[in-house]
Amino acid sequence: MTLTKDQIIHSVQDQLSLPQTRSAQLVEYVLEAIKKALEGGEDVLISGFGKFCVNTKKARKGRNPATGDDLMLSARRVVTFRCSPVLRNRVNGSEVS
Fold first, then answer.
1. What CATH number did the domain enclosing 80 receive?
2. Residue-wise pLDDT tens digits, 40-90
3. pTM of the model
4. Shared-domain flag, residues 29 and 65
5. Are residues 36 and 49 in the same domain?
6. In angstroms, rounded to a whole number, what is the distance separating the alpha carbons of residues 45 and 64?
7. How far are the Cα atoms of 3, 12, 16, 28 from residue 24, in angstroms, in the given order?
């Protein structure tokens, strides 16, 4: 099952005893700050969770899998995520080191 933004909002609402509209604003503010940093090419590090990194990919040759035709893929920026060792250990059920 996938965790949705709505579920995060309800979790914030329950844990902080805030109205739903205020909880939604808080979640939106956090997500907007992350988006703006990534748009500006900055990495986003959340201690104990992980790091969102902006990487630049060069233009390269590719192939259309449906037709087999060669094509050029344009240069672009992509966002990758590397989880922290703390999160990795929790996901794997290991003790936190």
1. 4.10.520.10
2. 999 999 999 999 999 999 999 999 999 999 999 999 999 999 999 999 999
3. 0.81
4. no
5. no
6. 36
7. 15, 8, 12, 6
